[in-house]
Amino acid sequence: MIRGWSIARRLFLAHFVFIVALTAFVGTALFIDARDRGYAETESRMLSVATAIAENPLVLEASGTPDPSALLQPYALSVTQKAGLDFITIMAPDRTRWTHPTESEIGRPYIGTIAPALVGTPFTEVTTGTLGPSVRAVVPVVDAQGAVRALVAAGVKTSNLSIALTARLPAVLGLALALLVAGALVTSLIGRYLRRVTLGWGPEQLAQLFVYYDSVLHSVREGLVLVDLKGELVLYNDQAAELLGIPSRPANPRGAAAPTLGELELPAGLGDLLRSGRPVQDEIHLTRTRVLVVNQQPALAPPVSGRGKPTPMGWVATIRDHTDLQSLGSELQSMQTLSDALRAQTHEHANRLHTIVSLMELGRTGDALEFATRDLELGQLLTDEVVASVDEPVLSALLMGKFAQASELGVNLAVEATGSLSDTGLQARDLVTIVGNLIDNALDAAMDAPAPREVRLSVRSGAVSVVIEVPDSGNGVDPDTIDDVLRRGFSTKEPGEFGRGLGLALVRQTVNRLGGTLSIGRRTGAVFTVTLPCRTPYPEVSSVRPTGRTDAHDA
Predict the structure, then answer these.
(1) DSSP three-state, residue 454
(2) What's the CA gap between 106 and 90, in Å, rounded?
(3) Cis omega (within 30 of 0) for bond into 452
(4) 554, 349 Cβ separation under 8 angstroms
(5) Measured between alpha carbons, how far apart are the two ends of the chain, in Å?
(6) How far from 143 is each of 50, 64, 92, 424, CA to CA, in Å?
(7) pLDDT tens digit sequence for 390-402
(8) Domain that holds residue 415
(9) Distance between CA 527 and CA 476 in Å, rounded?
(10) pTM attached to this predicted model
């Protein structure tokens, strides 16, 4: 039964039992203290009364007469009534009573201890006499020579003392009741707080949920990051640690201080996003080596018992690595460019073939031969120029496709290259990623500007670095957006187009990985300049296998 109880209910019951036990203990302690203090006060009062009587000269004088009771009995009864006592017994040193509230007890021996008083020491005791249990004090009556001539005993029955003590019980019970009410109130407030923060769940359920959630965090392929309202990392999985370059979570997180976002070396844009809690969907962020797509939503605690509004507890972000996907997308886009170029050349080649065939059918063989020769020379000249200027065959093939694409779009593409790329140690795949995306971005910018539409590519290879420069005749980049372009990628395409905003992001990621720099300037239009340090040449494995041979004039 208790196993299904919430933490709040368990704590309420335990705290309530504790308060009841504490109240009983405190009440008992107060009662015992009041009783002990009552007895101590009574003993002190009895001792004072007995001492006052013993010092009265009348008692010493009467003790020497033949009938002490005749003088002392009226005196003892009077003092007993005025002092509110139950008895005053004046006796001879041999215990013979001279006074007593009951006349028949006079002359009989006193019941109780007298030995300390016989040697001159007053004392108090609780004992049972003829009137029942009583608190009494016994004081000696001494003469001028110090001899004990009589003894005085003054006392109050314990039954009367209990009645006086009972009169104090309401105060003791009131204090205990106040303690009980205050404890119950505090217990109720603590219970409500725990019910709110634990959502009414029990410890077994919370432990089970923690195990499930921890298993989920380790099993998902995406990075998951949970941030509280103070900007501290509450939880993150191994994939998030790998993508963000932060330390992995310890196997036992209890007792380990949670790092704050300010302590982690995150890119400025990504760190600001995680700290702000701003809801986003598929927002692109760059690290030095990765292209990350981030989604972020607030984490809301459901209201207890289904009433009220959800309470914000922080926010949760999912992080996906799109580096490889975008690399594949860039390669796919390059292949699509080559495919479009081949389709356009096929269409153009068919037109030229029809022209040659028609000239031959008309008997104008010389004109047909001259037309074919001139067309071959122009195609070979373009191929020779590209191959001669760029000694990287994969990059040359890309540029041939870009020439065809630019021709189809009505944009004049010019290439200028100096030096040798084969000695720089840069991989062809990285060069294709950078040059291909920069030319695509420049072609899009040139298409949005009035004629003449021009794009130029300049590649300068040196002993230390390679400089790639791509100016266009477009409208340029707004200076206010340059920082945004370099931080997260930039696109002027319409929303919904494939790869929107990822081309420049992929260029920036590749440049950062290679230790280079990317800057944006302006001439007629925008000028993108990439500087890459030369690397030690190493073998490169191509991921594209040739499927056939293409003549130079058909490229």
Answers:
(1) strand
(2) 10
(3) yes
(4) yes
(5) 81
(6) 16, 11, 13, 129
(7) 667 777 777 777 8
(8) 325-554
(9) 8
(10) 0.45
